[in-house]
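[audit] Reproducing an earlier prediction to check determinism. Same input, same settings, fresh worker. If the tokens differ from the archived copy the diff job will pick it up downstream; this log only records the rerun itself.
[audit] input (187 residues):
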Amino acid sequence: MGNPVGKMEPHERKLVLDQLASSEARLLDLVAGLTQQQWSFRETPERWSIAENIEHVIVLENFITQTIAKVLEGPAEPEKKILAAKKESLVLGVANSRSMKIKAREAALPAERWPDPAELISELRKTRARTTAFATETQANLRDHFFPHVAFGDLDCYQWLVALGQHGFRHALQIEEIKADPKYPAS
């Protein structure tokens, strides 16, 4: 579970970068060539459209990376490590735990910030590129800085980077569910 200094081990950095790259590729593959009707289709009024899912991924990722940067400026809290260590499997299971509903933070709810699909895809790529650059370059003590997840409580900043990749996969699964709906518009 990380080293005592808190910097990412090579295998941890590889995991984060692999998760970020593969979840981005999966999302981009799922939205390639969609019509406007497909982008905006909702299975039910209370479910998000594909566009809203992508917007949420972008907004939450920007919020989390900004929060990581802020938290890293503050004091380390190594006493929280023991509790965060027990949450590693929860973080790695975020994508596949679709039966567990997680209510999005108010600030990360879709609000049609990028109504044009091309702009939405561009913003997803830019956001993920910034996150990937941070994960590639950081030498910060990620394992000693924490902030709370809405469902899991305090996670360390490394776990948050893993969660971002998992979050992308979670919404890829949601998009697959939308596309599997019998009423989903044909191309």
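[audit] rerun output stored. Observation attached for the diff report: The mean pLDDT is 92.
[audit] end
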